[in-house]
Structures are given as C-alpha cells and as structure tokens.
Amino acid sequence: MNVSTSILQALWGLLMFGCAQVGYSAEMTVLYYRDQDPGTPSYLTRILITPKFLRVDEGRDEADFVLLDRKTAELTNVLHDTKTNMRIRNRPLPAGARPSWQADEQVEEVHPGTRRITLAVHGKVCSQTVAAEKLMPEATKALAEYKAALAWTQYQTYINTPEELRQDCDLVQYVWETDRALSYGLPIEEREYAGRTRQLERQGRERLRPALFKLPVGYSVVYATKD
Fold it and tell me: With contact defined as beta carbons under 8 Å apart, do 79 and 86 qualify?
C-alpha cells in the first residue's frame, strides 16, 4: 500500500509544531475520512470527538449517526427514518474464546513520525495502516474506545457466521486486536484484507455544538443483539 505523498507533506507540518493539541471545552475535534468498499463509490465519514462523546456520521448534521458515550462505553445508532435509537451492547469478551495464535506485526517507518503497521495471520495480510504518532492523540484514544465498545458485537457477528465463511482476520481487526495499529498513532491510511480502504482527508477543531451529541427524545429504543 503506497502512502499518499501529499497527505504526508500536509501532515508533516502539523507534527512538527505539536499535534498533541490540548482540547478546549468549547471546541470539538473533527476528522474527515474518505472510505471505500470494493466495487462501490467512495464516501465521506465524519468523526466528531469531545471529552465526553464520539459521533460518527456521513458529514451532515441531520444524518443518521452512531454515538459513543465515552464514560459509559455505551453505543447508540440513531436511525431517523424509523425514529429508532438502536443500542449496541458492550459486554466483556469471553476470555476462553481468544484464539491460541497471535497476529504477526511488522512496523516500518514511512516518514519521520509516521509508521506503516502490517498485521497478518498465518501468512495472510489482514491490514495495513499508516499512523501518525503525534497527530491528535486524544482523537486516537477516542477511536480506540469506539473500536473496543464494538468488539463484543463484532464477536457475536463472527460466531453467528457459518464456519466456512469465518475469517481469522476479522478476529484480529474487530475483536481481539482492535487497538494494535492505533497504539502507533492516528490512522492516516488504512487497507483491509477484503479491500476496504480509508484515507484521512482533513482534521482540525471546530466550535462545539452540543446538540450534535444528544440522542433524539421520543425515539423507540431497540437492541442490535440479544444478551
């Protein structure tokens, strides 16, 4: 996976003057990623982060969104068309279910302050991530919390998948090693084994808008999975 030179050049200046920005109560961190699934047009993903919440949407304030309460680790998927607040359960992973094998990790420097992390299982590359070590560390921490909060649901998806269709890489990326690449910094570029890609387009801080982090009142509450 080649790293976009323009992205690295744009980020290099940020890294040099200290991207470990101190958050202000009246501001929120904003990340814009360009995502693409194989055979489909790319789309924008916006991530808004405050000390209390993380919100993921498609870049429009009125769009459906996923909200993480960072204190309780509770996730809710807000679906406006059906007026539904879908709760995504967060449970401890069953320790006895952890596979005996471990993912192989290869790390190489791409540019001062950035590294490419390659994770593989049984010789198969699961993912490649280019991460910026000093770029918005609080955002990186929030992303790790978000992935951890999804891990139990991802595990339920895995065990409910027919055995012949299960992929060890899914366990690495979404269940047991969700913070492996994030431990090296904020993802700039990502490529997964199935072909899905993600590229950081821009990042910064904007005026805090508390209404974006409130769950709609009066929506039905349902749960994405059973206990």
Answer: yes
Identify the sign of the CA torsion 126, 132, 134, 138. negative
Six-digit token string for 72: 């309780």
Residue 95, in any domain of the structure: no
Q: For the chain, what is the domain count?
A: 1
Check residue 15 and give its pLDDT: 47
- DSSP string spanning 154-192? HHHHHHTS-GGG--HHHHIIIII-TTTGGGG-EEEEEEE
Residue 116 lies in a domain: yes
Could you report the per-residue pLDDT of 169-213, keeping only the tens digit for each?
999 999 999 999 999 999 999 999 999 999 999 999 999 999 999
Q: What is the mean pLDDT of residues 64-83?
A: 97
| 82 within a domain of the structure (yes/no) | yes
Three-state secondary structure call for residue 115 = strand
CATH of the domain at 30: 2.50.20.10
Q: What is the DSSP letter of 215?
A: P
Determine, yes or no, domain membership for 122.
yes
The CA–CA distances, whole Å, from 198 to 20, 26, 140 equal 22, 29, 15
